[in-house]
Amino acid sequence: MTATIDPLTGRGRATLVLEDGTAFAGLAYGAIGETFGEAVFSTGMTGYQETLTDPSYHRQVVVMTAPHVGNTGVNDEDPESKRIWVSGYVVRDPALRPSNWRSQRSLEDELAEQGVVGICDIDTRALTRHLRESGAMRVGIFSRTDASADALAQRVREQPEMAGSELASEVSTDEAYVVPAQGEKRFTVAAVDLGIKAMTPHRMAERGIEVHVLPADCTFEQIQAVHPDGVFFSNGPGDPSTAPQVTVLQQVLEAGIPFFGICFGNQLLGRALGFGTYKLKYGHRGINQPVLDRTTNKVEVTAHNHGFAVDAPRDGEPVQAPAGEQFGRVRVSHIGLNDNVVEGLECLDIPAFSVQYHPEAAAGPHDAAYLFDRFVELMTSQKESN
Ligand SMILES: NC(=O)CC[C@H](N)C(=O)O
């Protein structure tokens, strides 16, 4: 019988168990207790604060491939939302103390304070390789348990799967709010919050856009009431095939209002146009994913966080939108160069486009920030033609 406290670190023992029964022994990190979610890995070496507070990670347990996490502590400036959303956090080697001029407290204290159960001191590379081979799957982290791995795996298998989960309504704002334009106001945008990250309205505000952030269950009439020059659908957690917002988006497209979508918003544009979405084996999460923009033929390095993707013709040739003639032709405008996954859609006959990745990316890279300028151009030309 091993001691329940590790004598070197003073940490309690903890166990990570995957739904296929694979178990990793580690040490407690963050809050003590147990948690469940979908195990996914992120290859980002910086920006853990932005990752943790991204609402798209709701109900996911994030495994960090970067071996040393917490070095720069936590500050009040970088969060993408008001709280940590990951349901569990897996690191190899937590920093003993933060060291950064912007740090206000330690990452571990923040995790503990927000009740986020984590585990450290496990071989995160072995775990990541397992997820790459077997696919993302449900996981549990348990500190202070005497139960057998088999019994714990059984409890993991009783949890809901990510496929089929509607989660945007759980993370969206309850009340509408406005992010004012910086400098002179040029446009009004209605941004539907499916799990929006703070940096997204910020990137729009920098371009003179007044952003009206609306709850996920808003109606087309509520969008119209804002008198928007453009409509935006944000990133968000869950399976896009369960999202009820597709009908509202179709109304936006039929009204000819310029539309821009990011991540979940891209998947919903795909579905509104009549394409399917499917679950990737283990998804894309990190900040160095190469994407080809077919409009300019430039390759950009981009931030990703998605487990699902749009199923549309990948050769870049325009096709008629399967949902109906009123949506005109559409083409896959951006393609992932690691695995040929659809990373962007562009409508050719109505003013709408979207990307599967994160042009607002904080902590960077910023190669894709031009997409906010494309949204501005789309709204400008629509205004001029009216
Ligand atoms: N960041 C996001 O918007 C993610 C979208 C969706 N939940 C996915 O996993 O693919």
Automatic annotation (TrEMBL):
It is an enzyme of class 6 (ligase). Keywords: Amino-acid biosynthesis, Arginine biosynthesis, ATP-binding, Glutamine amidotransferase, Ligase, Nucleotide-binding, Pyrimidine biosynthesis. One of its GO terms (biological process) is 'de novo' pyrimidine nucleobase biosynthetic process. Transmembrane segments: none annotated. Residues 1-187 are annotated as: CPSase. The active site is at residues 263, 358, 360. CDD domains: GATase1_CPSase. Pathway: Pyrimidine metabolism; UMP biosynthesis via de novo pathway; (S)-dihydroorotate from bicarbonate: step 1/3; Amino-acid biosynthesis; L-arginine biosynthesis; carbamoyl phosphate from bicarbonate: step 1/1. HAMAP family: CPSase_S_chain. This is Carbamoyl phosphate synthase small chain. It comes from Flexivirga oryzae.
